[in-house]
Amino acid sequence: MYKSEQLAQNLKLLIENGTWKVHSKLPSLREQVQRSGFSLITVMNAYQELESQGLIYSKEKSGYFVAEQVTTQIPQTHAVVALNPKIEINSLVFKYLKSIQSKHISPLGSAFPDSQLLYPPKLIQIMGQLSRNRHSYDQTTNLPPGNLELRKLIAQRYCMQGIPTDADDIVITSGGLEALNLSLQAITQPGDYILLQQTIFYGAWQAAERLGLKVITLPEHPQHGFDIEAFEQVIQTYPIKVCWFMLNAHNPIGFTVSDEIKYKIAQLLHEHQIHLIEDDVYEELFYGSQKPLPMKYFDQQNLVLHCSSFSKTLGSGFRMGWVYAGKFSEHIQHLQLMSTISANALIQNALVEFLSHHHYEKHLRMLRRALEKNKKQFFQYLKQHLPEGCKVYNYPSGYFLWIQLPDKVSSMQVYEQLIQQQVGVAPSPLFNVLPSHQHFIRMNCSFEWTEQIQHAVDQFVKIIDNRLLKPST
Ligand SMILES: Cc1ncc(COP(=O)(O)O)c(C=O)c1O
Questions:
Q1: Which of 169, 189, 407, 419 counts the highest number of beta carbons within 10 A?
Q2: Per-residue CA distances from 39 to 34, 42, 258 (Å)
Q3: Boundaries of each HTH gntR-type domain copy (predicted)?
Q4: Ligand 1: which of 197, 312, 430 to mutate, judged by most atoms within 8 Å of the beta carbon?
């Protein structure tokens, strides 16, 4: 064992047995050198190790402090978790995405709605027409910040929700993920603190990992989805630079946070001058009569960068998204010009035609109806057939069901066994890195209920039944 590991272990004991209380200050590096007799570099390594385990946290120019204890249960309130900044979720996500890629795999693990419901014929027709005209490929008018007409149309959609928006606030990107990644890159430096929801789209973990950020997570609230009191505590405790939240049709769980809570979040962001990257790529997939408001609506100070895309409504194959960047527009354009250069010109032009002739609204109405119907069918079937001890979380938006398995059933093992039988599902370690959250499954329910789909769902149910009969492994 290295000296630093030995020292880290001794210090960990002091935290765990309560000798050092939560939020109390640790001895400074120099004091610790004197106390322990170890070198400065050993002490620094030991402190960094404890920080990476989430046991302590650092404040600029103030030193190190004892962090809150790691929570063990998903909807537990008032618990905050500091996580290892060296989270390695990338390889798991890569392996998972590869495993469900084959067209022979039943796509219940896919993040995209059934492609039968996307790629509307009218849009394909417009693209066909435009594709015969060389001007449609002209890159110059479509370079960052993107096609002006398209940005105006997107700005109009914000205005319709009561969010004053100018075309210059918008930057068109290659999908929502680019919008999110560029926004995060524009705001942070390596080593900055980012606050994520404890269960969140794996793209957020990947981005934090890539940019070398320190991740703090906020547990979900059992009723409201978002725990405003815990949020207030975290931002008072940690020097959070930016938050990355999904508050509408949350992926993977599905909840939408109320306007009241969004308003309070905005007030706290304002008070503490913290930026928010809002992932709202499911904003259009609500079942009710009103589109939920984004955080951008409550943002008085341009602290929120709202990111969305056409991937879940028209098709992810178009790779078309945007960010309401406001004052960050220039910076984001710089970053874009250094990486992907711009979003596809032909598709930007086609979207201008499609949106300006009101085809989008009609398509969205059909899409929402189909998703609601299909998800209902899955829900009813699962409710009837899943064994006791399973719980299905069902919310009126999107196309995912979040399924809680009995504690002793590992979602990773269920996924691995199912993939052998050519069925994909998304296990919770893709979304939540805590060992206590290994028994959830995200199921894509956007598909029409066919014999084939029923067979895939039956295989899922059978594996859980069998695992419950076996002693835990
Ligand atoms: C929550 C969430 N955010 C962002 C993205 C990325 O969207 P896009 O395909 O537009 O890049 C996805 C895609 O699955 C997602 O589920």
A1: 169
A2: 9, 5, 52
A3: 1-69
A4: 312
| Domains 119-359 and 361-469 alike in fold | no
For residue 309, the ligand 1 atom closest to its alpha carbon is 10
Q: Is the CB of 219 under 6 A from ligand 1?
A: no
The answer, yes or no, to whether any atom of ligand 1 lies below 6 A from the CB of 203, is yes
Regarding the beta carbon of 175 and ligand 1, being less than 6 Å apart is answered yes
For tokens 């209902």, name the residue.
376
**Model pTM score:** 0.83
Q: What are phi and psi of 216, to 5 degrees?
A: -115, 140
Structure token pair of residue 335: 């970053």
Atom 13 in ligand 1: which residue has the minimum CA distance?
111
Encode 231-272 in three state secondary structure. Answer: HHHHHHHCCEEEEEECCCCCCCCCCCCCHHHHHHHHHHHHHH
Query: Which one-letter DSSP state was computed for residue 286?
Result: B
Ligand 1 center from residue 461 Cα (angstroms) = 28
Give CA–CA dist 125/138, Å, rounded: 19
CATH number for the domain whose boundaries are 3-66: 1.10.10.10
Is the shortest distance between the CB of 316 and ligand 1 below 6 Å?
Answer: yes
- Cβ burial of 438 (10 Å; 0-12, 13-18, 19+) is middle
Domain-wise residue ranges, the chain: 3-66, 119-359, 361-469
Distances from the Cα of 169 to the Cα of 143, 292, 326, 339, angstroms: 15, 21, 4, 20
Q: Is the CB of 248 under 6 A from ligand 1?
A: no
Q: What are phi and psi of 402, to 5 degrees?
A: -110, 115
Reported as a single tens digit per residue, the pLDDT across 142-200 is 899 999 999 999 999 999 999 999 999 999 999 999 999 999 999 999 999 999 999 99
Q: Which residues contact 100 (CB under 8 A, 6 or more apart)?
A: 107, 109, 110, 419, 424
The CA distance from 290 to 21, in Å, is 47
**CATH T-level topology, domain 119-359:** Aspartate Aminotransferase; domain 2 (3.40.640)
Which ranges constitute the DSSP H helices of 17-138? 29-36, 40-52, 90-99, 121-131
Please work out whether the CB of residue 425 comes within 6 Å of at least one atom of ligand 1.
no
End-to-end CA distance of the chain: 30
Q: Among 171, 277, 309, 402, name the best residue to mutate to test ligand 1's pocket (greatest count of ligand atoms within 8 A of Cβ).
A: 309
Residue 172 CB less than 6 A away from ligand 1: no
Given this structure, which CATH class describes domain 361-469? alpha beta
Q: Give the mutation target among 97, 281, 310, 336 for probing the ligand 1 site: most ligand atoms within 8 A of CB.
A: 281
